[in-house]
Amino acid sequence: MKARILDNLTQTSSPISGERLSDALGVSRVAIWKHIRQLQDLGYSIEATAKGYRLLNSPDTPFPWVFGERAAHVHYYPEVASTMDTAMTLARGGCPEFTVVAADRQTKGRGRLQRVWQSAPGGLYFTMVVRPKINLSASPLINLAAAVDLADTVHALYGIPAQLKWPNDLLVQERKLAGILSQMAAEPDRIEFVNVGIGINVHNDTRNVVPPAVSVSEIAGAGVSRARILKSFWERFERRMAAGDLHNVVAQWKQRGLTLGRQVRVQTLTETWEGLAIDLDETGGLVLQFPNGQRKTIVYGDCFHDRV
Question: Which end of the chain is more exposed for a tag (fewer CB within 10 A), N or C?
């Protein structure tokens, strides 16, 4: 109902009467008034005049009703320990594919290798549950696909030329814009689900962040919307996954990649490797070449570029 009220209010800059909304939506004027009050309490600037209601401004918050027909798949929290942990509970409970858990703030957000993910105010933090019908060996391609689609999303919306650092960071001029982390549940013969967690600096103050970071609004200026970024990425990524379109992901990643051709250090939980990044294999593993000419494919880890 909130989505339908907002849809009506955004269609015109003139006030719309409660009676007109009541007739259009098939509910009482009292019900309309209650929803309007709730929307106002949630940060929507809705002017109530003698002629009716007028929407002046909307909060940049990924409330479920913002996503229209996808609203039932959105679980939004002002604060949560971790969107990944909440999504894991939902996924194990059989939630629908493309269920999304989004939060304004995480108190226990984490990155790769159990590092703390700083969920600063103004960022977009969410985890999406996917249930791909692919071979277990191809599962790393999902992270690469999410990175490619997120880079294409911010470019299409705001003209941001994001590049990709293996395995799943988005950088702009060597500064971090977004990070991706996935967790999987699988049986020997099939993948049950993959949870893709994404953190994007949207309105964050990144001036004192180490290593250097940047936000979408810092690059694009005014008019940036967290909900719009999520909606656009969601549509793009769902379309890809529903079509099973992972066969071109490695080539697409290479077109946007920053890692290949550089000296890198890759850290896993137990080992550290240093060498020249020369290629990605067919499942997204990073191929390193060492000074003695030997090569090794790294399938996971945290990658650090030498300075250029």
Answer: C
- Do the Cβ atoms of 80 and 86 come closer than 8 Å? yes
Residues 233 and 103 in one domain: yes
Question: Is the domain of 30 the same as that of 106?
Answer: no
How do residues 223-273 score in pLDDT, each as one tens digit? Answer: 899 999 999 999 999 999 998 879 899 999 999 999 999 999 999 888 999
| 176 and 80, same domain (yes or no) | yes
End-to-end CA distance of the chain: 53
Residue 115 is predicted with a pLDDT of 60
CA-nearest of 154, 194, 150 to 168 is: 150
Cβ–Cβ < 8 Å for 207, 213: no
**Domain range enclosing 180:** 64-256
Please tell me whether residues 162 and 19 are part of one structural domain: no
Burial group, residue 25, by CB count within 10 angstroms (0-12, 13-18, 19+): middle
pLDDT of residue 12: 87
3-class SS letters over 221-253: CCCCCHHHHHHHHHHHHHHHHHCCCCCCHHHHH
Do residues 109 and 198 share a domain?
A: yes
Q: Residue 111's pLDDT is what?
A: 56
Q: How many domains does the chain have?
A: 3
Q: What is the mean pLDDT of the chain?
A: 92
| Bridge partners for 124 per DSSP | 200
pLDDT above 60 for 308: no
Whether a cis peptide bond, with omega within 30° of 0, leads into 161 is no
* Res 280 pLDDT > 60: yes
Instruction: Among 57, 73, 90, give the residue marking a domain's end.
Output: 57
74-82: average pLDDT? 95
- Within this chain, do residues 245 and 187 fall inside the same structural domain, yes or no? yes
Same domain, 226 and 289: no
